[in-house]
Amino acid sequence: MSIILHHHPLTRARHVVWMLEEVGVDYTLNFLDLMQGEGRSAEHLQRNRMGKLPTLEDQGVFVSEASAIGMYLADRYALGHLAPAFDDPLRGPYLRWCVFGPSVVEPGCMAKAADWPCSPQRVGWGAYDDMVATLEGAIGEGPWLFGERFTMADVLLGGTIRWMLKFKMLQGSNDILRSYGARLGERDASKRAEAINQKVCVDRGLPTG
Q: For the domain bounded by 3-80+189-204, which CATH number is listed?
């Protein structure tokens, strides 16, 4: 029985298609028409009480939150490949970068864009400039977070970086972040995922930009 991704291409579920393509497992997409309220249907609320997408279904196991889905897929289906083994010294840094996007980059960029009056010492995401410098230092010469070794952390953090760059919410002092995002976009799995999401948009009459 294949994995089911409860999906809408204009949500974070779009990013999970890339994760699944990188892992290389069989899966099917279950499109939810959010405009028709299917995200708040009784059936979907049984899967995810918050009515959110993405929600992954794997043989009776339900996983939500994009970072959790990525880590789950890598551990279950690509351990030692897309996820460092449990006794690998890279395991700790890998986990950090897997959650850095939603816990630091997203709120940090939102706070900067909205000019939220918050002290870097009092919020979990710290100072915007420190966050950008941390990202640039982690990527360095690349090509990936761990040099030549590509992991699910690149998909998770890289997807956030690409999204923030697209909307000009993340700007560094040099081209490290933009070059990293471009490399990620050239991966075969990323291209396949983009084509899949675009097809759903076309088939459902949704914006494709």
A: 3.40.30.10
